[in-house]
Amino acid sequence: MFYRAEQDHGLKHNPFKALVSPRPIGWISTRDRQGGFNLAPFSYFNAITDYPPTVVFGCNGPHPEGDTKDTAANARDTGEFVVNMATWELREQMNRSSAHVPRNVDEFKEAGLTAADCELVSAPRVKESPVNLECRLVQVIQLRSSNPKITNNMVVGEVIGIHIDERIIKDGMIDMPTYRPIARLGYMDYTVVEKVFTMDRPD
Ligand SMILES: Cc1cc2nc3c(=O)[nH]c(=O)nc-3n(C[C@H](O)[C@H](O)[C@H](O)COP(=O)(O)O)c2cc1C
């Protein structure tokens, strides 16, 4: 089949997210201007460069109390955010932290998580997550929206500090079956990294 993206696909649900999958989940923590904490998952997320390490996430949609969701607003206001990686053990807490709640609600408390201090930024990190990437905001780029009710913001951040739980390091490498990051598929589906295969580069 072929369909033009802005026309009807004729399927039961929009297949786009299921097609571009799996997508890692950047579980983003921020601090607002008043010092309040915020936490939410983003699966339009990935790493895009090594030198320096850079990440990007898409913060898309309205917020009843402002022009954008709290995460992009806080990153824009403070110039910082933290990416916490979501794992199998933390799947329920990750999901709970996605609830649409008023701006002043602290999702760390709502999800029963511990907000720990960072080394280089004032945003909090999720202590229970085995990987936290402390980020300095590079740019918020507003992308075209084809839905008048939705604002699309691409948030780019440079990773300036990295926390790794020693338990997921084996022989100097990240042990994926211990780490067990989860990723988003389409619909309400997720996957978990449990199987790894290796291929050498051709050159
Ligand atoms: C697994 C998962 C992935 C999500 N990915 C995104 C995403 O990539 N972009 C987005 O705008 N919202 C995404 N959401 C929804 C946000 O997490 C949700 O709107 C959240 O309330 C935003 O919080 P905030 O207003 O505190 O930033 C996702 C939700 C879940 C459960």
Automatic annotation (TrEMBL):
Q: Give a Pfam family name.
A: Flavin_Reduct
Query: Out of the domains of life, which is the source?
Result: Bacteria
Flavin reductase like domain spans which residues?
A: 19-171
Which Gene3D superfamilies does the record associate with it? Electron Transport, Fmn-binding Protein, Chain A
SUPFAM superfamilies given in the database record = FMN-binding split barrel
Its taxonomic placement starts with: Bacteria, Pseudomonadati, Pseudomonadota, Alphaproteobacteria, Minwuiales
The organism encoding this protein is Minwuia thermotolerans
- Per its record, what are the GO molecular function terms? FMN binding; oxidoreductase activity, acting on the CH-NH group of donors, NAD or NADP as acceptor
What the entry lists under InterPro entries is as follows: Flavin_Rdtase-like_dom, Split_barrel_FMN-bd
By what name is this protein known? Flavin reductase
